[in-house]
Hints:
alpha/beta, 11 helices, 22% helix
Amino acid sequence: MFWLGLLDPVEHQYYKQLTSSDVDTPGHRQLALQAAHQMITLLQNHGAMLPLDPETVSSIAIIGPHGNATQDLLSNYHGTNHLVDSHSPLMAISQLLGSAKVKYAQGCDVSSNDSSNIAEAVAAAKSSEYAIVFVGLDQQREREGHDRTMLELPGVQEKLVEAVMGANKNTVVVLINGGPLAIEWIKDNVPAVVEAFYPGEMGGDAVADILFGKVSPSGRLPYTIYPADFIKRSYFNMDLRNESGCTYRYYTGNALWTFGDGLSYTTFSYKWSTPLLASHQSFDAAMVGRKEDTIQYTVDVTNTGKVDSDVSVLGFVTAQGHDDAPLKELFDFGRVHLAAGETATVHLTVAPQVLSLVDEKGVEAIRPGHYKIQIEDLTANLEITGKEHILFSLTEMKKRHEEKQSKP
Length: 408
């Protein structure tokens, strides 16, 4: 508060002088749109249903409790925002295609068990070439101080999707939510699924841009999406390896989608920039522990398709021969924009903390051994040699604290 000047007289506080014209500039709106573009994740696209062609689509039905969502796109922890009120998915798609091609039926709300309006949604889907169903969660289902007790879609939303899919096989589901949703039936039956999360003030426009190919999706899942029965796992047990495990680092069950999943409208190829160097590297544990950027990998990424697109490149490491090690762990990532046919080099660094393991005594150390590096479809061997290098010891920290306390 002191550094922000919030304790100064009001007339001297910089932030008190700002108006809506300062915080809602064209640049800010463009940044919000770009952020939404980058976060939206294409989970499923059977038969390359997406992107839709705005020039050839004859009619489309926008359905679901979030089809015309505005404030629900913002999630929480935000100030007053009126811009989003004119940027719902329905509004954005209507502006893109022309309102004459677009039908709208809410079908149901997020949490209610009232299914009386599903028939109207079915009629809209049946009379349209495509149906886009917007379902998910809202702040009545997930917010600070309000934990979810189920992973499935609440209310009759899944029933709505099933009914629409029965009326029109050209159905796309768009998810508006924060936490993961166990949508097993949708995964098994709906050809295209888009995870939009809470996409913000320009979220409706961003979703339309993705659906109709103005922008190629490049988001990657920030968490694993578990099946519905995962909720039975006791969260009073903090052992992440307990039962079938928890998080992508330890989960051994059958996930719907896993951390890092995400499709594109184009294709990419990957190759080591320096193949001989990358295929097998060896480093002393102490050297790795003393310097943050000792271990690096460079990858040449080529857009081998016909669509310009961002691409997020993820690097994972797996410790081999250590029973207490995670199944894998993200060590770095990079994002680049590539025109069709273009190649760029991505640099990824393995930080010491990623290679370290913590034992039952609270000692965090880099242990000698063999590690597997995976960057997209590329793999390499990494060997850590020498003696175990300690990064942190709870015992030593307590000892130093006690010595400091004993001094007069």
